[in-house]
Write a structure and sequence with these properties.
15 helices; nine-stranded mixed β-sheet; Glutaconate Coenzyme A-transferase; 520 residues; homodimer; globular; 30 strands; 25% helix; alpha/beta; seven-stranded parallel β-sheet
Chain lengths: 520, 520
C-alpha cells in the first residue's frame, strides 16, 4: 500500500510513484524546483552518416538498434489522435522481441490504443504514464495495471521531461512528412495533422529518437517542426495513421439548445466584464460549447469593431476564418482540430505552430498561458470552492486526460461553461472527486441556471453587476440543480488502492485516483 | 609558460587554456566526447511576471539585476556586424560598476569593438574568446591580452556552450524586433539584420538572458527566432546598431580580373566534375570571389536546366534571385549579408532561418554542413598537404575569425579559390603558419595558375582529366608562384608566448597562435 501524505489542498496523496519519491502539491507557485534541467548525452556527427541519410529498413530494426530492452521508457505522441497506428505496432514488436516491463509515455492515449491492454496483461507494458481515456481508463480504474498511472498536463509532460523526472529511452515520433535526416513536419503529406509540438521534449531529451513517416521528401523538409539534428533514425512505412480519424475534417458546433445558450451566456459575460478589448486574446478548444462560444464572440467583436492580438488554438475552421477576416493578428496553435486548421498552418505565417514548451511549460521563464485574457474550458465536476475535476467521471472512473487544461488555468480569466447537470447528475458538487485545478485559478462558472463568479474576483463581480446577466453564487446554482435532480449526486465508491497520481503543472502531486468498486 | 603537447596534426599545442584542461586535436572524427550536455538551471513561471512583461528600465539595471560581478562570462553576437553598439555599452557599464576580469564571449568581433581595448587594459575584460579581428587581433598578437584567446568556428562555439566547456553567465542579445516577453527576430524593425541564429546557444544555456531592442512590438513577436520562454529581461533602447553598417545594402562582386577568372574557373571545375546535377546543393559566402562564383554557376545551371535543392547562405541578392527564379528550392541561411537577403528571409518561407546548431554543431546527430555538395571558401594560406589557414596573415598576426569555415570543410567537395599570391607573397606555402583546417578535408585549390586536386580525391581527378581545365599539382602551382614572387615567403617571427588557441569543431586544440615579434 502506498504511503500517503496530506498536501496543501487537503488531499491525501502518494509520496512515492512506482518507486520514485514524489513531492506533494504545495499550493499555486509555492514549489521551488532545485537543480538543473536534464542533460542528454553528447552526440557527434562522426557517428551519423555524412550524407544525412538515417533511413533504416523498418520499425523493428530501428527499435533493435535503439537497444530496446526490459524496463525502458518508450514515448509516442497523439498527433494522429484516434487514427494512430504506431503505438500499437511498437508494442507488438516489443512482444515479438520478448521485451517486458516497458513504461509507455504517450502525450495522450485514445480508444484506438485499446489493443495495448493485452500487452499490459502479458507484461510487455508495465504501466502507462499519460492520459488514460476510455478502455485504458476502465482498465486502470479496475486496478488491473501493475504500475501507478501518472496524469500530467501537456505543460507538465514537458516539465517532467525537461526536469529529468521522466527519462525517455526511445522516442518514436510519427510524422506526416520527413526527410532522411529526420527533419519532420505535420503540415504536408497524406496524414497531415498540423503540428508536431507534443513531441518536442522527446526530440530534445530522449536518448534515441526515431521518426516514422509515410511521406519521405528530399532534405530539407521545411518547416522542420522536429529538427533532424536531434533524430537518430528514420523509418518509412506505408501508413502511419488513418487519415479519417487524424482530423475530423469538420468540427461541428453543438446543436444542444442548452449548450448553445451557455456558450452565448459566456460570450455575453466576457463582453459585460470588459474583456473584449482591442488587442485582447482568448483560447477556446474543440468542444461544441467552446466552438459556439468562439462564434458568439466573433459576432460581438465584429459589432464592436474589436480585433484580437492572438487566439490560442486548438485551431478549427472558425478560428481560421477569424484570422483570415483580420479579426485576430495571429493564431498560436498547439494542435489543429480540422483540415482547415492544417491548411491554414501550412499556408499562413500568422498561423503559428507552437508547442508545450512555449505555451505551457511552468518551469520556464514564463509561458504563453498566463498572457491569455480569456480561456474557456470544460470540466466533469466543480465544487463550492471552484475546484474542478477533469479526469474522473461521476462514477469515479478515470476517463479523460488533462491535456492543456491545468496550464490554461493561468489565464487572466478562466471560465468553465458547463451544463448544470448531465444525465440528471449535478455537475456542481460539495467537493470534487479528483482535484485537477485549484479553485483559486477558476474565475467563473457559467451554467444555464446562472453564472457564478469566484469571490476572489471582486473585479469581475463589480464589472458585471449591472449587466443584466443572471450573476449568482455557486451555492445557489448547486441548490437549484439539486432540487431538479433530487439531491446531491451519489458518491463514487473506491477501494484504498491508488491507481494513478494527478500531477500539478510543477510536478507535485495534487491528487490521486483510486480503484473503483464496481456497481453491485 | 603554457605546457605544450604535440597533437595528431603534429602541432605543439597547449594542454591548458586559462586554467582549464584542453584536449589536443586527435584527427578528424577521432575524439569521442564523454558525458552529457550542459544543464541550465530550472526556472519557474512564478518568478516571472504573469502578464509576460519583462521590460526593465535600462541595460545597466538589467546587468545589475543579472548579478554582474567579477569573473563572469558575458556573451554578445555579431548580427549587427560592424554596426554593433551593444558590446561596447556593456563593458562601459561594467567599468562604471567597477566590475573586473570579465570574459567576453562574442560570436564574432569587428573593428567597431576597438574601444574594448581600453577595458582590456584597465582590467574590466580579462580576455576575449571569439574572433580577434583587426585592432583586437593586433592587440592580442602583440601579447597584451592577459588571458589566452580561444578561436572557435560558429559550430564550435555552439558545441562549446552545449557541452558545458563555456558557461555563459549573462547573454545580451541585441534584436531588431522583440516583444516584452522576450520573443525576438531580426527580420523586422529599423535595425533588421536577418536572422538571430548566432545567439541560439546563448539563449538556451546562459544563466541570464537579456534581450535588447530598439523596436518593441506587442506580444507575440512572430517569428520568434529567439524564444521568450528562455529570456529573463527585455531592454528597450533608442538605437542598438548603426543600420548602414549592419548590412551593406549592396554586396558587390569582385572587379579584379584575376579573381573573376578564378571564380569562373571554379564554376567550370564543378561543372566538369559532374557536381552540377539536378537537386544538388552549394554554399558560397559573401566574398567577392564567392559571389562571382555563384553568378557563373547560375549561368551554368540555366544553360543545363539544372536546379538546386538548397543553397546555404550567407545570403545575398544573388542567392535571393536564384530562389525567386526557381533555380533553388530553398535558401538555408545562417546570416544575411544584404538588405535583399533580409527582405527575402522576412517574406519567403523558402528562405529558411537557420542557426549553428542546425548547420554546424559537430556534437549533434549530424548537421547540414556535411550534406552540402559544393562549398567555396577563402584562406590566407594553403600548404602542400592542403592544410589551410584562415586566422593569421603572412606576417603571423591574428587578423580573422574562423566563422563557419571549419564547419563547411565537411562538405562533399570543398574548394578554395585563391589568388596564387597577394602583395607578392605566395599563398601556397610549405607548411601553414596556423593550422585551421586539416588537408584531408580540403579537396581542391583553384588559382589563376592552375587547379590542384587533393590526391585523396581520385574521383575528382578522374572526372576532370579530360575537361581541358589546367589541372596540376599543388607543388607545381607553388613553384610557379615562387618563381614570380622571387622565392618562398619570409616566415613570420614569433616569441614562445601563446596568445590564442585554435579549436577544432569538436573542441580539441588544433593549433595555437603565438605573439608576433615586431618587424625591426
Amino acid at each position: 500500500m502506498a504511503e500517503l501524505q496530506r498536501n496543501a489542498a487537503g488531499r491525501l496523496v502518494v509520496t512515492e510513484i512506482n518507486g520514485e519519491p514524489a513531492v506533494p502539491y504545495m499550493g499555486v507557485g509555492a514549489y521551488k524546483p532545485r537543480g538543473r534541467k536534464a542533460a542528454p548525452p553528447i552526440a557527434r556527427c562522426a557517428d551519423y552518416p555524412a550524407d544525412g541519410n538515417k533511413v533504416v529498413p523498418d520499425l523493428k530494426e530501428a527499435l533493435v538498434r535503439a537497444g530496446l530492452r526490459d524496463g525502458m521508457t518508450i514515448s509516442t505522441h497523439h498527433h494522429f489522435r484516434d487514427g494512430d497506428l504506431i503505438a500499437n505496432r511498437i508494442f507488438e514488436i516489443a512482444a515479438e522481441l520478448g521485451v517486458k516491463d516497458l513504461r509507455w509515455f504517450p502525450s495522450a492515449a485514445f480508444p484506438c490504443h485499446a489493443p495495448l491492454i493485452a500487452h499490459l496483461d502479458s507484461g510487455v507494458i508495465h504501466h502507462i504514464e499519460g492520459s488514460l481515456n476510455g478502455p485504458l481508463g476502465d482498465y486502470a480504474s479496475s486496478g488491473k495495471m501493475r504500475g501507478m498511472g501518472v496524469l500530467r498536463s501537456h505543460g507538465g509532460r514537458y516539465q517532467a521531461v525537461q526536469d529529468g523526472e521522466v527519462h525517455i529511452d526511445i522516442a518514436v515520433i510519427a510524422a506526416p512528412t520527413a526527410d532522411p535526416f529526420g527533419n519532420a513536419n505535420g503540415v504536408e503529406g497524406p496524414s497531415a495533422c498540423g503540428g508536431l509540438g507534443f513531441a518536442l521534449a522527446d526530440s530534445q531529451y530522449a536518448d534515441t529518437v526515431i521518426v516514422v513517416t509515410d511521406h519521405l521528401v528530399p532534405f530539407p523538409c521545411v518547416p522542420w517542426q522536429i529538427q533532424g539534428n536531434l533524430v537518430d533514425m528514420v523509418v518509412v512505412m506505408d501508413r502511419i495513421g488513418e487519415p479519417s480519424k487524424i482530423v475530423s475534417g469538420t468540427t461541428n458546433i453543438t446543436r444542444s439548445p442548452d449548450r448553445l445558450y451557455i456558450a452565448e451566456l459566456t460570450a455575453k459575460f466576457v463582453d459585460a466584464a470588459g474583456l473584449v478589448r482591442d488587442g485582447f486574446s482568448f483560447q477556446a478548444g474543440s468542444g461544441g460549447t467552446s466552438l459556439a462560444f468562439a462564434i458568439y464572440l466573433r459576432e460581438i467583436m465584429k459589432r464592436k469593431n474589436v480585433h484580437a492580438r492572438f487566439v490560442r488554438g486548438g485551431s478549427t475552421r472558425y478560428l481560421v476564418q477569424m484570422l483570415e477576416e483580420g479579426l485576430t493578428d495571429y493564431i498560436l496553435d498547439g494542435q489543429t482540430f480540422d483540415l482547415e486548421g492544417v491548411r491554414s498552418m501550412r499556408e499562413n505565417p500568422r498561423h503559428v505552430h507552437t508547442n508545450p514548451f512555449v505555451s505551457y511549460n511552468y518551469h520556464g521563464k514564463g509561458n504563453v498561458a498566463s498572457m491569455v485574457d480569456i480561456v474557456v474550458l470544460g470540466a466533469t465536476e466543480v465544487d463550492l470552492a471552484f475546484n474542478a475535476n477533469v479526469v474522473t467521471h461521476s462514477d469515479g472512473r478515470l476517463m479523460h486526460g488533462i491535456g492543456g487544461w491545468q496550464n490554461c488555468l493561468f489565464s487572466r480569466c478562466t471560465i468553465l461553461p458547463l451544463p448544470s447537470f448531465r444525465d440528471r447528475i449535478p455537475v456542481i458538487v460539495d467537493e470534487v472527486t479528483t482535484l485537477c485545478g485549484p479553485g483559486e485559478l477558476i474565475d467563473v462558472v457559467v451554467t444555464e441556471r446562472g453564472i457564478a463568479i469566484n469571490p476572489r474576483r471582486q473585479d469581475l463581480i463589480d464589472a458585471t453587476r449591472d449587466s443584466g446577466l443572471s450573476i449568482t453564487t455557486i451555492e445557489e446554482i448547486q441548490s437549484r440543480v439539486e432540487r431538479i435532480c433530487g439531491g446531491k449526486p451519489a458518491k463514487p465508491r473506491f477501494t484504498d488502492n491508488v491507481i494513478a497520481a494527478v500531477k500539478w503543472v510543477d510536478g507535485t502531486v495534487i491528487d490521486v485516483v483510486r480503484q473503483v468498486v464496481p456497481a453491485p
